[in-house]
Amino acid sequence: MSAILTLAAPLSGLALPLSAVPDPVFAGGMMGAGLAIEPLSSTLLAPCAGEVIQLSATGHALTLRAANGAEVLLHIGIDTVKLGGAGFTPRVATGAQVVCGQPLIEFDIDAIARRAPSLLTVVVVSNSDAMTLSDCAGGPVQAGAAGLLTIRANGVDQASAPAAAAPSCSDSARVAHEGGLHARPSALLQGVARRFDAQLDIEFNGQRANARSVHRADDAGRG
Q: What is the pTM of this model?
């Protein structure tokens, strides 16, 4: 297995830096490193082969795990979770094995543009702490074309690294969020978790997940 992965563009459009995204969680890299695409096409394609490890209940986002361990989050538009699934048609399910270029989600670009603050689609590596990203594209990109960005695995994923034996203590706090723990609030929790040399878990409706992982926290938060 190669530690180096080159992503293909999941959409046609204009590739932009994350700093262009009108959302501080994405723009600040809290979701991970990557880029954004202003879409001109309306079918989200798999940027690499891998497993669908998380699919939003509202169909606006999913995460792929590639063979080198990279967890690639694809998030269509900003605040699109509030659309409740309107305009999105997933073509895969959680657990599916996909090939590069396979359709993942079809979306009504015109309807979503009228209701969402932005159509910018984010492509980030949610476990980028364990990866090195390079060669990020800028400017026009074509759906399915290689060369969007390169990801190199460089160590153990911090989300699953075992903690060293040491004296311990524990505490808990309640997190309330009107929209549930979808990708963005999960990323904020992950940012808090990274400040501590500790195991942080989130629990909801009997499900427990590692707060250092965006997709695991998202899954737990949806119950």
A: 0.77
**119 close to 13: Cβ distance less than 8 angstroms:** no
Domain range list for the chain: 4-153, 183-221
DSSP letters spanning 144-185: T-EEEEEEEE-S--TTTPPPPP------------TT-S-HHH
**In the numeric block, which tokens belong to residue 180?**
């549930």
Residue 100 and residue 49 in contact, taking contact as beta carbons nearer than 8 Å: yes
The single residue of 75, 177, 182, 215 carrying the catalytic annotation is 75
- For domain 4-153, the question of CATH label 2.60.40.10 is answered with no
Residue 8 in 3-state DSSP? strand
Considering 60-69, 156-165, 172-181, the range whose residues carry the highest mean pLDDT is 60-69
According to DSSP, the β-strands at 71-75 and 61-65 are antiparallel
At 9-64, the pLDDT tens digits run 999 999 999 999 999 999 999 999 999 999 999 999 999 999 999 999 999 999 99
Single-letter residue type at 91: R
**75 given a catalytic annotation:** yes
Coil vs helix vs strand at 34: strand
